[in-house]
Amino acid sequence: MATRHVLAELSRTCPVVAGISLQFESVGGVDATRRLAAGEPFDLVVLDATALAALAQSGHVLPDSLIDLAVSATAVAVHRDAMVPDVSTESALRAAVLAAKRIGYSSGPSGTALLALFERWGVAQQLADRLVKAPAGTPVGQLIAEGAVELGFQQLSEMLGLDGIQILGPMPAGCEIVTTFSAAMGSLCQHPEAARKALAYLASSQEAQAVKQRHGMS
After folding, report:
1. How many CA atoms lie within 13 A of 171 on its CB side?
2. pTM (2 decimals)?
3. What is the pLDDT of residues 95-126, one digit of tens each?
4. Which residue of 65, 81, 136, 182 has the smallest Cβ count within 10 Å?
5. Do 60 and 76 fall into the same domain?
6. 110 in the same domain as 90
7. Which structural domain, as residue segments, surrounds residue 84?
């Protein structure tokens, strides 16, 4: 999950409320939905905005607590020893994609949006045999560093700090992929006062904003 590093740091900086400290468990969106549906109590849930809105509609999180937490841009990367392709414009990025022998993408929302972009470009069938989806929990950058793919796309927060890759920057104007992550209280929240104060801290405190920016989010 793209937010796991930033949430790990925020869980250490979030003030303790009524003796309750903030602890995050990083799981995929499908797993989170399954566990909430099974009645597992979570005080807070953080997912991409679309997934969390669906959980609010189904009653698994409290709709009145829903708040946007961070915005994350999808970045482009290659191996650290590779020649750097031009990805400064949409047409240049399209050419770089078509020239790549293997292309890595995420199983998360950025990957879904990338496949939709390839459809819009009219190259989805042409690329089908060259696409490599990173296994859940494996950064696309790892595939790049290992030489499994030539060109990779994933949210910047997942690329930062990885060895063996060059981050070329966010996707250019006209085809940028940006994911909004939201947070909400679980419908079976056991510590509502602490959860609401944690939400306020995560969403709007200056300290939290600084942490998000360090991890490539806004």
Report:
1. 24
2. 0.81
3. 999 999 999 999 888 999 999 999 999 999 99
4. 81
5. no
6. yes
7. 72-170
